[in-house]
Structures are given as C-alpha cells and as structure tokens.
C-alpha cells in the first residue's frame, strides 16, 4: 500500500533501528512502500543526515545490485560524557557500600534507559570490528550484555557456575578469583559458540578480573577469538589483575574505608580523547 513520505520515514527509521548491522536492500523498501527507487533513495539520504546530526549512529549506503543500507548505532561524545558524569554523581554515595569492598548498583542498572545508554557507549568502540557473539557471566552483567548484543544484532551467551540438564554437553574451566584467590568453576553448553567466532566479553563490575579471565579461558576452549572486553565499572584494584589483555570501563570505583569515590573509567581516555 502506497504511503506518504512522513509515514515512510517513520517506518523506515523503526525498521532500521530494529535491524542494526543488517544490510537492507533498496528493493525491500521499494516493495514495502510501493514507491519509486528515486523516492526511497531520497528518504535514505534524509535518514542518513538525521541519524548523524542527532548522534543516533551511522547509516551506511552500499551502491550496486548487491548493495543497500546498514544502520550502525553509536553515541556522540557530548551525550556519552554527560551520561557517564551522571552515573558518577549517582554512584558517589557511601551508602552504596557493600561488605567486601563492592558497590551497590542494582537499582541503577535496572533502569532500561541506563542499560540502553551503557550498551550504546560500549558498542561505539566496536563499529569497525566483526563481533559474532557477546558473552557474560550469570550475574549483574546479563542486562548489559543483552543490550549490547541487541545493538550489534548478534546472540549473547551466559556462562554459569553450574550446568543445567537442558544444557546438554558442556565445557567447563576452573579459574581463580582475582580478588579472593578462590578457585571457581565456569560452564557453558557446547552448542553455545561455533568455532572461530569473535566474542566480546561484557560485565557490570570488575574487581580482580578473575571472572573476565575465566570467560576468556572459556572462549579459548571453544576455539574462538576474544574480540574485546568492556565493563560498566571497575574497582580501583591495587593488586595484579588476573589477565593482561586490554579492556575498557565506563567508570572507576575507589573504596577507602567505606568511603566511595567514582571517577572516569579508561573508556573516556582511550576512546573520547583519541
């Protein structure tokens, strides 16, 4: 059914945002709206400019018979830095101290708008990388990992400490907690990751890095490649991390005798100041 341009633009925006990192051929929109190719091309030009000006992401256009449009979500510096500053303000509260040197963040990370922004910030650094899967541990990082996977339009997998009967055959690794020196177990179904996949690790909070190290070891057991590591918050850990590869964090938490100080993570320095 033929529709007005205003209606087309709204529906095209919705469709592109619901299918990020996916090549949408021009004929798809032509048939969808029963419109001429020239009209759809003009619409795409409008959307491309709008996405860019509003910091929503990039709309790439690929010419040729096999071409089309690909929407790549991202976030601009001003919006990302404003969000990080807001997180620092809200978390800079000594009442959030949890025994063992941890920071209570569950209430913050339960807000969909917060998780969406965290996801956009994390995926912005991987726009030029091929990511096949997002991985996390069955803790507070699940909501962030799911949002990151949604923006990348890839599956996400969750490792656990114990397997379930519905997992079938599993692969497990033992790892040492970087903060407590305890030996823990991590399992994942053999069907979770195809070999040679590029896997991004995402988590909510990193202290000694033991969980990250365990996830990286699990990825290796599946004969997959570690594409990157991103966490929402990292502890200002004084000891040696359990791993020696690069990672990014949005905020850094320093806890001194139950006094909490939250500052910029290395994401600000590594990404924004390039």
UniProtKB/TrEMBL annotation:
Q: Which InterPro entries match?
A: PRTase-like, PRTase_dom, Pur/Pyrimidine_PRTase, PuR_N, PurR_Bsub, WH-like_DNA-bd_sf, WH_DNA-bd_sf
The record's keywords, sorted A to Z, are: DNA-binding, Transcription, Transcription regulation
Q: Is the keyword Lyase assigned to this protein?
A: no
Q: Where are the transmembrane segments?
A: none
Alphabetized GO MF terms: DNA binding
Q: Indicate the segments forming the Phosphoribosyltransferase domain, all copies.
A: 107-260
- What Pfam families does its record include? Pribosyltran, PuR_N
**Boundaries of every Bacterial purine repressor N-terminal domain copy:** 4-73
Q: Name one GO biological process term.
A: negative regulation of purine nucleobase metabolic process
Q: Which PANTHER family does the annotation name? A: HYPOXANTHINE/GUANINE PHOSPHORIBOSYLTRANSFERASE, PUR OPERON REPRESSOR
Tell me the subunit arrangement.
Homodimer.
The similarity annotation says: Belongs to the purine/pyrimidine phosphoribosyltransferase family. PurR subfamily.
Task: From the Swiss-Prot or TrEMBL record, give the protein name.
Answer: Pur operon repressor
Q: Which organism is it from?
A: Philodulcilactobacillus myokoensis
């Amino acid at each position: 059914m033929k529709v007005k341009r205003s209606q087309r633009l709204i529906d095209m925006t919705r469709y592109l945002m619901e299918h990020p990192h996916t090549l949408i051929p021009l004929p798809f929109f032509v048939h969808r709206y029963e419109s001429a190719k020239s009209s759809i091309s003009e619409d795409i030009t409008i959307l491309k400019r709008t996405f860019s000006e509003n910091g929503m992401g990039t709309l790439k256009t690929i010419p040729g018979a096999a071409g089309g449009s690909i929407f790549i979500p991202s976030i601009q510096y001003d919006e990302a830095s404003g969000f990080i500053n807001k997180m620092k303000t809200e978390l800079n509260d000594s009442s959030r101290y949890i025994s063992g040197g941890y920071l209570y963040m569950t209430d913050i990370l339960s807000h969909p708008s917060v998780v969406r922004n965290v996801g956009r910030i994390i995926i912005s650094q991987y726009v030029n990388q091929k990511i096949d899967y997002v991985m996390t541990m069955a803790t507070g990082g699940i909501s962030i990992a799911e949002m990151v996977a949604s923006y990348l339009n890839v599956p996400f997998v969750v490792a656990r400490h114990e397997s379930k009967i519905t997992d079938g055959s599993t692969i497990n690794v033992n790892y040492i907690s970087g903060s407590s020196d305890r030996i823990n177990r991590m399992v994942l179904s053999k069907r979770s990751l195809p070999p040679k996949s590029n896997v991004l690790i995402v988590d909510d909070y990193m202290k000694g890095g033991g969980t990250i190290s365990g996830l990286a070891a699990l990825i290796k057991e599946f004969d997959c490649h570690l594409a990157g590591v991103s966490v929402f918050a990292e502890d200002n850990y004084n000891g040696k991390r359990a791993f020696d590869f690069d990672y990014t964090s949005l905020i850094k938490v320093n806890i001194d005798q139950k006094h909490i100080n939250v500052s910029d993570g290395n994401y600000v320095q590594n990404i924004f100041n390039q």
